[in-house]
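Worked problem 6 (solution included).
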Amino acid sequence: MSRRNWPAIRAVVWKDVTAIRRSKAIVLPMVIVPALLLIVLPTVIGLAARGTNSPDISQFLSRLPHGFASPIQRLPQNQQLIVLVNGYLLAPLFLIVPLMVSSVLAADAFAGEKERRTLEGLLHLPITERDLFYAKVAAAFVPAVAVSWIGWLAFTVVADTVAWPVMHRAFLPTRLWAVVILWVAPAVAALGMGIMVRVSARAKTTQEASQLGGAVVLPLIFLAVGQSTGLLLVTMPVALAIGGVIWVIALALLSRGASRFTRDRMSATM
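Solution. The predicted structure is:
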């Protein structure tokens, strides 16, 4: 196995990150959507619970599975809404964010180079095909994980701060939340990239890559929405195992994509 050319990989990653920072069409959705989901929404929930007429959600909780509702039902009424929404129901958003960001960036990885007519120069760089592929993957993976972790940190601070007059304690993060954010979320980002980078290599424009990849990525988003809240109800070993399975699938897709990536195939799609 050949050694990685890390200086060349870092140069390609830095070039892509610089291009991302200069593109408002990419940066704005990466900032605005997580800010609305992870800062504005928990602020509204916290302020609603601090009102004199805190919503009574006991009937709603009675319809939920006992294992899910029991810890919340033991809390005072004015704390139940905060813990239910900010502690559990917003969980799907944290797997949507890395998947969404990584998919957007990965769609631009090669298709964007073709659209900007910079692919020919990229293919002539003194770097192996495998290193070039992984550099493009890293350029999408690092910002996706960074946005997820920064968003989670902001969410935790905002949720705990706004809810403090009601909770009188910091209720986030929990250990399982840490597993979801630090272990499962990066795996989900890698899974999205494993699909979208290969689609981007075949597409001629970023829009085409997004449309083609959406047919595959959208079901993953719905799956993330359906399963992420459940992750907070399982044991720590199970949550770690779920993340491990996602990592194995993601790394298998990326490894296969790297083995099939060649300059000749890329040139044929220009």
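Discussion: The CA atoms of residues 88 and 229 lie 6 Å apart.
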